[in-house]
Structure formats: C-alpha cells, structure tokens
Amino acid sequence: MTLTRLSRTWEPQPEENKKTNTPTSKRTAMRVIVPLQGVVQGRGGLVLGSVIPVLFYFLQLYLKRHRNDPNDNQPEPNDPAPSTSPSSSTENLPELPGLARSLSRTLLSPRSPRVPVYVSGRVGAILKDSETPYFVGLKKVKEDPYDELVNPNGVIQLGLAENKLSLDLIKEWLAENAGKAILDGGGKRGELSMSGIASYQPSDGLMELKVAVSGFMSQVMGKAISFIPSQIVLTAGATSATEMLSFCLADTGNAFLVPTPYHPGFNRDVKWRTGVEIIPVPCRSTDNFSLSISALDRAFNQAKKRGVKVRGILISNPSNPVGNLLDRETLYSLLDFAREKNIHIVSNEIFAGSTYGSEEFVSMAEIVDLEELDRNRVHIVYGLSKDLSLPGFRVGVIYSFNEKVLAAAKNLARFSSISAPTQHLLTSMLLDTEFTQNFININRERLRRMYNEFLSGLKQLGIKCRKSNGGFYCWADMSGLIRTYSEKGELELWDKLMNVAKLNVTPGSCCHCIEPGWFSFCFTTLTEKDIPVVIERIRKISETCKSHN
Amino acid sequence: MFRLSCKLLSKVATSDGHGENSPYFDGWKAYESDPYHPINNPEGVIQMGLAENQLCFDVIQNWLMNNPKASICTPEGVDAFKEIAIFQDYHGLSEFREAVAKFMAKVRGNNVKFDPDRIVMSGGATGAHEMIAFCLADPGDAFLVPTPYYPAFDRDLKWRTGVQIIPVVCKSSNNFKVTREAIEGAYKGAEEANIRVQGLLITNPSNPLGTTLDRETLKSLVRFVNEKNIHLVCDEIYAATVFMSEPNYVSVAEIIEEEDIECNPDLIHIVYSLSKDMGFPGFRVGIVYSYNDRVMNCARKMSSFGLVSSQTQHMIASMLSDEEFVDKFITESKTRLAVRQQYFSMGLYDQVGIRCLKSNAGLFVWMDLRKLLKEQTFEDEMALWKVIIDEVRLNVSPGSSFHCSEPGWFRVCFANMDDKAMELALTRIRNFVLKNKDIALSLKKQCWHSSNLRLNLSSRNLSSRRMEEIMLVGMMSPHSPLPQSPLLQART
C-alpha cells in the first residue's frame, strides 16, 4: 500500500525541490536511463544505441502509467464517483517549485521530519489556477498599493471589481441611522438582544433580510417584477451562490456553457470543488461580443459528441467584463434554447443596479414571469457586493423558481452563512427605500461620469472600447499595441502594464476571450484625480510599444 | 410542455447527504414546531439538542455596549466603515487574524503559539471541516472518525466532497476512550476493502462526550498518523469550555512540539471556531489552522466560498484584542459552565438516579439511560427518545444519531437556556421517572450499583475558590431553589 502511494502522488520535499528545481518526473526517468547509457557506451554496439530511444519511450510510457494509475492491480470497486481530477499526480507537478514557504516554520521544532504527504488531487489544480495574471495582479496590488501621497509609484488597482464611487452615501446613512441597527438584533427598539445576533440563525438568511433584499432587487431590476422572499436563499457572497448552484445542477464531469469573455472568477466558482466543466462559447468583436444562439448550439453539440453532458448555461447580464446587456429578444431565444435542450439557465445579474447607459436592463426573472413555462430551469445569482458596493459584507443571493434547488441550496447554505450582525445592519439599510433609491440614482450618475472620463482618456491614446451599458469595466481593444497577434503578445503587454506601468489590468485571455489584445479596466476603484495618472502610464507603454512595432 | 424532472438536478441536490433526515434534526423540528417559552408556551418542548453557549451573553453584551466603535456602524465607529466595507481580501483583516491567533493560544493556556498568517477563515466550523476534507481527500477516500461523533460530520465531510467516513468504534466499557487497537482495526478494515484512508478526525474536547484526550492518547494518535502517513484533523472548537482545571487540556499543537515525538507537521490540521468558545455561532466564524503549506494555501483560496463579513471580522478583532476582557470572559465562562454542568448532572443523579459519563468540558452531558431500555436495541432507544420528545417534552439527541455503538445513551445540552428552563427540564424528567414506577425502580437499583461512571463530586477538582462560591450561591439562591426530594414531589 505504501509503495503504491509513493509512486502515485509524487510530492517531493519542497526543500529538495528548491535545490534541483527540476520536475521530479524527469529526474526519475533520468535515474533509470543513466545506467542504460552506461551499457551502451561500454559495449559500443550501434544496434543497442538505436534500441535505446525505443526503450526510453516504453519506459516513459510505463512510468507515466504507473504514476497515474496505481490502482491498476487493485481496482476500487466501491469508488462511488470518479475523482474530480483523476490525474492528480501529474497536475501537482508543475507548480511545485514556485511554492512560497512560510516563515512560520520557525514556530515548529526543527527536528520534524518531512516526508511526502498526500493531499487531494484538486489542491494542485487550485494552486495552479491562482497563478493566472488575474490573481497575480491582485497580489501585486496588495504588496505595493498606489497612494497619491504615500506611494505614488505603487500599483494602481484596475483589476478588482469594487465600487468606491458612492461609499460616502452609505457611510452617511450609517452615521445617521445605524447606531443600533446591529445591536437591536430583532429585539425591541433600543434594546440589545444578544440572542438575536449571537445565536444560531437560519442558515439561508433571516426572513427580514430576504424581504428587504427582494424589495431592493425590484428597485434595481425594474419595479414590474416582484421578487418573492421565499424563493431567496442568502449566502456568503455571489461566489458561493454560484458554487452552490453548480453543485445543485451538475455532477462531476458535467458541463456548463459559458459565453466568453467571462469573469475569471467563474472558473473558481463553477469548477474548483465541484468537478464540473466549463465549455467556453466564444463571442466575437465583430458581433460586439453579443451572445449567439448558433454558437451555443455548436458548443452543445460538440460536447454531446465528446460524451459530455451539458447541464446549463451560465450568463452574466450585464455582462462581465464587456458591460453589454442582453436584450429581451436574446433572453427569449436563450430560454427557447434551454427548453429545447432541456437544460438550466443561471443568470448572474450582480451588476443589474450598476447600469448607466441608455439601454434597458431586463432580468431573466421578468422573462420567466411573463412566460410561466419552465420556471424551474431558471436561477438568478445576485448580491450586494456590486450594486450596494459592499463586497466585504459578503451577501450573495440565489433566486430560483425551482423548489428542489431551493431546498438543497438551503441546506448547502450551512457551509457559508452570513454573519447575523451584518444581516441586521443590512436589513435596516435596505428597508429605507428612500435611501436606496437615492443611492441607486446617484451611484448610476457617478458611474456614468467616470466611465465617460475614462473612455475619453483612452480615446486620446487611440484605444477604443466596446460600448458598455453597465458594470465597472471598460473593455478595451489594445491589439494595436501587441507585438504578435497572439495570447503571448497579449501577455507581454500585460506584463509591461503590470511591471513597468504598475497597472493591474485583466488581460482578455484570463476571461477566455479568443481574440488577443483585449483588456478590461475597472474604473470604479479610482477617483477622478487618478484617471490622468492611469492614462499617462498607459501612454508611456503605448509609445514604447508603437516604437517597437 | 417539457417539465424539468428531478433527473436534471445533481446527486448533491437530490441525495439526502445533508443528513437532515436523522433523529438529531428531527428533534430540532419537533422543538421548532412547539418551542418552549416561559410565558407564551410553558408546555412547549425545551431545546436540549442545540450545543449553544448562552451562559455569558451578558458579558459580551456589556462589552458591545461599552465599545460602540467595534461594530463600525455607529456614529463613533463609522470612520472605519469605508475601509472595512470594501475589504474583500480572502486573507482576512490582519487585525482579525492576529486577534484570533492570540485567542487560540490563550484558550490553550498559552502553552503554544499560533501564527496569524496561518489562520484561514471559513463559514463556521461546518465550512472549515468541509474545506479541509476538500483539501485532503478525493472522492472515495476516507477519514477514520471515532464514535460517538457529531452527527453533522456526515454532512460536513461527505456530502459535497464524496469522501467516506469509517467509524472507529469506542465502547462504554472504557468510557468511550479512543484506543490504538480500535483505530488500527478500522484502518485495516479499510485497507481490506481497498479504501484509501486519508486521515483521522478527532474532536478534542469530544462532542458528544464532553471529555478531553489525555496527553498519552494524543501522542499515540500522532504516532499512528505518522506511521501510516495520513492526516490528523483535530476539531478543537470546544477548547475553552474545559471547565475543570484537572486534567489539563492538551491541544495537538502542544503535542507536535514535544521532545519525544517524531511528527511530520504537514499531517496536522486544526479546526477551530468561535461559535462554542465565545458563544456566538451567529457570527459564523470558522478557522482552519494547518501546518501544511500547500493545504493552507489551497484552503485560503477556497475560503472565498465562506468568508466572514468584514464588519464582523472587525468587530471580533476589536473584541478579542481587548485582552483584559478576554481573560475575564474565559474565566467567567468556565466557571458558569462548571456550575451549570455540576448542577444539572447532580440534579439528574440525586433525584432520579440518572447518571452521565464523567466529563470535564463541552456544553452537554452524555446521559446514560441504558437501564430504561427494555431491550438493549436501537429500536428501543428510538422508542424511548420519542417518549422523551412527546411526553417529557425535551429535545435530547439519541446516541444512534452520533453513531454510538451501544444503545441507551443521549446527549443533553445544558448551556443554551437560563436557570429556570433548566430547572423545568429537571422537573419534567423527575416527574416522568416518578410516574413510571418500573423506570423508577430500575434506576433505584442502578443507584446502588453505580460503578465506574458514578459522578464523583469530591474528585472533581474545582480549583478556584470562586467557583465553589458561585456554585453555592447558585444552588442556594431563591431564583434557582434546590430541587425537592422525589418523595416530597410524589406527595404533592
């Protein structure tokens, strides 16, 4: 048993790895090959020499098989489900050398022996996923954040979708109203009720907050729709709302169709722990990155041919990162498509209240409301992180018409409930509809102004953006600045923007955009004063790029 | 018209892996449909199935009132609001991590240090357990878990991860102690069934037993996991509820630093939470503390699925950084728990001869009702449990829901109610026993033959004098009168 395991998981001691810095598989292969070469050199034979490559090939094959499937001789009849990542060992390999070691080792006794330890197959994949430019950029900002006065040469954050434009309004409200909003905890006015905040609460959120959230959703998504509080499950952030739906709607190995470019976080939310796949459905700049049903259909059929069961479509509306809205017509045809294929629709509408263009936002809930049919296949993900600019408070919403999904999600919410004091605070805030309406209006106005300013800044540099109607991003075409029209060229430019211009932006490849050269700029973390600084930094890069080209 | 069938949902959504169809949760439902309230519903079911620590709510309440800044949502605290509201880094606020690390050390008698950079947040201990299972095991792999164990482990460890639990059978004959032999046996069984064992999960202090593991046992467990090269997950969420000064509480964090033990720290992981020790499960603060870098890094990425609201992080950071308050709180909480546990178990024993497993921690007692079973079967246990819910109107949790190998044991929580409710619970039990003469008789017999499980008050070393004083006051106070003798009760 122990031997089998050793050959299976390959996790050499990191110390050892640091020294050699070579992937372990290679080393092992070498160890076996070297004596063979000795044989060849010793006897000299030409025949043997030519046999070696063949032997080598078989050896590699053998090693590979042996490593991947240690249970060849011991099949596990009871294995209920295939591993989410069957080739756990190979996936663990590449990023081992890059692992940072924590200083906290000093806390432990130095005698501790370290032998290889086996962890789950997904660990490798997750750690690797966090090395994409999207996450690397976030880390760089954290290490060296820009500050006009204290750190004027620091990294400017344009990669994290948070909205700082209207926080003053919320702060003002709190100062005036929330003195006791938390501590009231469901008790009588002015009376501190510990049991209302400290005790166990319903895992899927307090009913009061559900009522308040459904009111806010109607406010944001159009008053025509009334959201029913009992169809809401509250959870810690839209991240876990999306994961919960992924767990509910698909089994390991099943897939979701996701139009590209899509938010880099979807890989985490949909795939990491569920073992569910994402099948990217490319949208093109020539179509203004709008969703095409025929592309969906193609992707669906290709998956079918591969034997992959598609369980649903995951859309974001307003789209993240492009910022366009899905019109009523598209939503209807999407529903038709889902009906035809008998699959689910998960509509991520977390930016619904952050629209600022002339186009009208239409929620999937409205379509279903009129349609009556097939409500069971429609699920909406919402949250307060974007529209109320409170990402720290971790409030995510599942709004579903499917009772079974709601029941399962309610139980799943135990893994990620929202803290009760935060719920009480938000309940009283959202029930103040005068405040929320005012907030939504002013916030939209500020978003519009920032968007326009940022857009015109980029325009001066000759960089064009897709017209956006909502969300926190400018989706910019910088293909004119890349040296080779490829992902490599795009990442080179990203590297310059990151390390030379000190701008954390998200390259299109992170969003699975199939056309190189697109970048997303989040403009809501900036102040108006910051815009010229950012534009100036881009200008410098674009000049060096142009001179190279 | 097409209809979406159940088939279109996942196994996760359609299975009953959530475990809510067990007596453990059924009892909760019985309570929820008719909850006791001193004025509105005095005949209702008293909730004794919920391990909640409400005995020190007033202490925390006072602190919150005196520190309005902490909640950031008061005129005094609002200046910190902007920074906090937007904070969404999955590492957590650094002051939060530091405060929690310090608190964890304090709760363990400051015998060990915890590195704030290793504190990983999760949605309660529930989320923490699932996270660690996701990190350590692939679907089909297994964890060894000594029985009786917390019923919701079946949900936390298995439901979404596809991991299995292999019970390690512990018996009443040695007070449910975990033995090396039992663990070896379970491990061997798994090997024979071709199941890959990835770890051993222990709760220390134990839920539902309320006992702690001694140093030697812990060492042998650490040796075991090192020999087999599997993980050791230690659930220490009741660490601060250890209300006896003897025996000392020992955390696994201490063991791995001991001289005479060879331990690969990459195998050791601690699950912690503030729900029990501080008594605020509503705040949903769970912690994974892993000594394994890869696991820690991966868990941190996963914590995106269950981050604690930054407002709450800030509030807790302020509270736990107030060392004077924390010291006072820990002592006070232990004292009150000791008093409550003593009073409750003595009430059970002295009046009607019901015994509990000797315990030194936790928010519950492990009540022995074997003598009340007509036959020693789980069917009879369920029958008795139904009677307790329906007639005695108490929601206690039957041992079978904890995968206990022997019928007749029940977990009874005592810290989630005030003195009056506890008195009422005792009265109900007493009346029930006296009404059923055969039961009374069998318990009487038991009184005289009590053996190793006997409550031995004199041996309980209540160190602080204050504790004794409080006990006295508590017992003599007119608000919680000394229970009358069964004879007296019978006459009235």
What features would you highlight for this structure?
heterodimer; A: about 550 residues; alpha/beta; Aspartate Aminotransferase, domain 1; Aspartate Aminotransferase, domain 2; 2 domains; seven-stranded mixed β-sheet; four-stranded antiparallel β-sheet; 21 helices; about 10% strand; globular; B: about 500 residues; 13 strands; about 40% helix; disordered C terminus
What would you note in describing this structure?
Chain B: It holds the Pfam family Aminotran_1_2. Chain B: One of its GO terms (molecular function) is 1-aminocyclopropane-1-carboxylate synthase activity. Chain B: It is an enzyme of class 4 (lyase). The complex is a heterodimer of chains A (549) and B (492). With 549 residues, chain A is of the alpha/beta class. Helices cover 47% and strands 10% of the residues of chain A. Chain A contains 21 helices and 13 strands. In chain A, the strands form three sheets. A seven-stranded mixed beta sheet of chain A has the order 2-8-7-6-5-3-4, sandwiched between helices. In chain A, strand 3, helix 13 and strand 4 form a beta-alpha-beta unit. Chain A is globular and about 60 Å long. The N terminus of chain A is likely disordered. The longest helix of chain B has 30 residues. Chain B folds into two domains: 213 residues, Aspartate Aminotransferase, domain 1 (Alpha-Beta Complex); 253 residues, Type I PLP-dependent aspartate aminotransferase-like (Major domain) (Aspartate Aminotransferase, domain 2). In chain B, the strands form three sheets. In chain B, strands 2-8-7-6-5-3-4 form a seven-stranded mixed beta sheet, with helices on both faces. In chain B, strands 9-10-13-12 form a four-stranded antiparallel beta sheet. Chain B has a two-stranded parallel ribbon with strand order 1-11. Chain B is 42% helix and 12% strand. With 492 residues, chain B is α/β, with parallel strands linked by helices. At the A-B interface, helix 6, helix 8, helix 9, helix 10 and helix 12 of A face helix 1, helix 3, helix 4, helix 6 and helix 11 of B.
